[in-house]
Specification:
Structural class of chain A: alpha/beta
Largest sheet of chain A: 6 strands, parallel
Strand order of the largest sheet of chain A: 2-1-3-4-5-11
Order of helices and strands of chain A: HHHHEHEHEHEEHEHHEHEHEHEHEE
Distance between the termini of chain A: 83 Å
Strand content of chain A: 15-25%
CATH class of the largest domain in chain A: Alpha Beta
Number of strands of chain A: 12
Shape of chain A: elongated
CATH topology of the largest domain in chain A: Rossmann fold
Number of domains of chain A: 3
Oligomer: homodimer
CATH architecture of the largest domain in chain A: 3-Layer(aba) Sandwich
Largest interface: A-B, 54 and 54 residues
CATH superfamily of the largest domain in chain A: Response regulator
Chain lengths: 343, 343
DNA sequence: TTGTAGGCGTTATCAA
DNA sequence: TTGATAACGCCTACAA
């Protein structure tokens, strides 16, 4: 089943079939109808390799996923899913690449013409992979935000705004002494953008509003959460607001606050930086600041594709930098400060 | 940078370069060395499309992932990761396909020659996609177990054995009255293999050992977990062992048992069917029955590849059916039954 | 509006 | 042990 079979069946030349399929030159309505009819009837699909060879475009986008498991995995999977669906909508397929291949993997994709573009997930501040990308002629988009995004397009959540939004919400409820419970120290050490930037946004806004605040790292186990809370409450017993960016610490924290008599939300407010699905799942349901994973995936794909188009037309692609605004959803875990009664 | 450039540089013909790379015919040590030298020096990678066109093999495996989100996502991601890494080790790349394309998506992959083989994840008992696969000449492997796996290869965890293993462990500790807390009813209705088969294994073994048992569905929220536990304890107040196959119910359940005075493991034993990482994370750490996700991915890839090889050589591929034995890891949440003291 | 034909980079067959 | 060369299926510039 090749293009010639379709051409013969429809009584036209192969180029006409090709043009009907690509739309790159006008075809009379009648011919187009006949060709499309036989394409459908014969179940014809152009041979991907032949097409890539002749057109110099594979219609494949590579998605590089991290091997690390400290990121909240379901979110990555959700992004990957939306990347795939959006790509398909534009006639592209998605190739999955694990990060362990490193820069060589991307070089291979570029050199073999396997991928027209690359989407790199989980980019870190100071990411050493970024410099390697410049040499290649592959179009690249980052999900994440490196120190220097020159020559690339980037999409990410506006984590800084998310951190600030948490502070604003708590401040608006009258809290004056708050704490940030984040990820384990390893994550800050490797400068994961989502951790570093959220904390920075939190810090800046808290200082701006002259609030007292504390930052505490937490590995996510029950013990480490207990440790973090212990430190906070002994250093700053007056703390009433908790901003939590650590999915695994949420359950333990709620439990610990309860056992310590700090009933949420009457005696303590908790605001989570986590996906909606998670926030909904606790009792009390958590007020949360969230970013839309599907948007990330969609925009990343549209950015690579637009870069690919530009480069095909011989233009230098514009570098885009999109930061998605976070959303605050108020649920049951935050409330106005009540002066602690002496009872 | 094509094969001709390498050939010229090494002073040989293009076919010699090709044969050095593919190893499909003997090449003198000296020539091989020279060719390999220039391949590396020039950073040559064969053009994927051209290769696929000439050889009729794309060296790409398609991985079809479900869109549904009720499966425990990190496990799917882990499988996908290992599929990718194993595939690379064998010189294959992995194309990500979301399930929303349905059978047409797979037809497209086959017809366009984009994929040499397909791995279908999250296959259900009575899966309607299976029948469609027979028509295609693509080699297919299922992760999961359909009612009728004829003409296909399958890999999956031995969920039935896992269910039985839980019963055995509890029985060995002296429990005589146990309960199974599973997923929401929707999952059983669509006959997800991991749910149905685990429960069947649990049932069969419990009956065999003449234990009293109950099955309770649970959506995974705090409320539904409370509901499930409430039913169990009112119907069978003597229940001392809990088998839980529902990641989200674990936290709530532990908390509920504590508040009801059924201290784990002294007054109640809990055994989880979940990944190690999760089991480790609770206090007390959970005794758990687990399957190795990486093995699943690895075996699936090796099965497709072996099928592809067979079909290339004109043989009909053998249908394999591999069920991976589960592992029991005893932690802190299970212990011998203590007769409840009257205090 | 449509057809003809050259070429894309590899593989593999046939010779030597 | 190696080389020349005809496919592989499609795209697209050029003709008509």
């Amino acid at each position: 089943m090749t293009i010639r079979d379709v051409a013969r069946a429809a009584g036209v030349s192969t180029s006409t079939v090709s043009y009907v399929l690509s739309g790159k030159r006008p075809v009379s309505a009648e011919t187009r109808r006949r060709v499309e009819h036989f394409v459908a009837e014969l179940g014809y699909h152009p041979h991907a390799g032949a097409r890539a060879l002749a057109s110099k475009r594979s219609h494949i986008i590579a998605l590089v996923v991290p091997l690390r498991t400290d990121v909240y995995v379901p979110v990555m999977m959700e992004i990957a899913t939306y990347v795939t669906m959006t790509a398909r909508k534009h006639g592209y397929d998605v190739l999955l690449i694990t990060n362990d291949e490193g820069p060589d993997g991307i070089r291979r994709l570029a050199a073999s013409g396997l991928a027209d573009g690359v989407i790199l997930m989980d980019v870190e501040l100071g990411d050493e992979r970024i410099s390697t990308l410049g040499e290649l002629r592959t179009q690249t988009v980052l999900i994440g935000l490196p120190d220097d995004p020159a020559g690339l397009s980037c999409v990410d959540h506006d984590f800084s705004a998310a951190g600030a939004l948490c502070v604003d919400h708590l401040a608006g409820l009258g809290h004056r002494e708050i704490a940030f419970i984040g990820y384990g120290t390893g994550i800050y050490r490797r400068r994961a953008g989502y951790a570093e930037r959220t904390l920075a946004g939190f810090r800046a806004r808290a200082e701006e509003l002259r609030m007292r605040f504390l930052h505490s790292s937490c590995e996510g186990t029950y013990e480490s959460t207990a440790g973090a809370l212990g430190h906070i409450l002994s250093d700053r017993p007056g703390t009433t607001g908790f901003v939590v960016q650590n999915e695994r610490a949420l359950g333990p924290l709620l439990h610990l606050l309860r056992t310590r008599g700090r009933i949420v939300p009457d005696k303590a407010s908790v605001i989570a930086l986590c996906p909606e699905r998670l926030a909904d799942q606790y009792a009390p349901a958590l007020t949360a600041v969230t970013g839309a994973a599907k948007e990330l995936g969609r925009i990343a794909v549209e950015q690579v594709i637009s870069r690919i188009f530009a480069s095909v037309r011989g233009r230098r692609p514009d570098d885009a930098l999109v930061l998605l605004a976070p959303t605050l959803t108020v649920r049951e875990s935050t409330g106005p400060v009540r002066l602690s009664d002496p009872s």
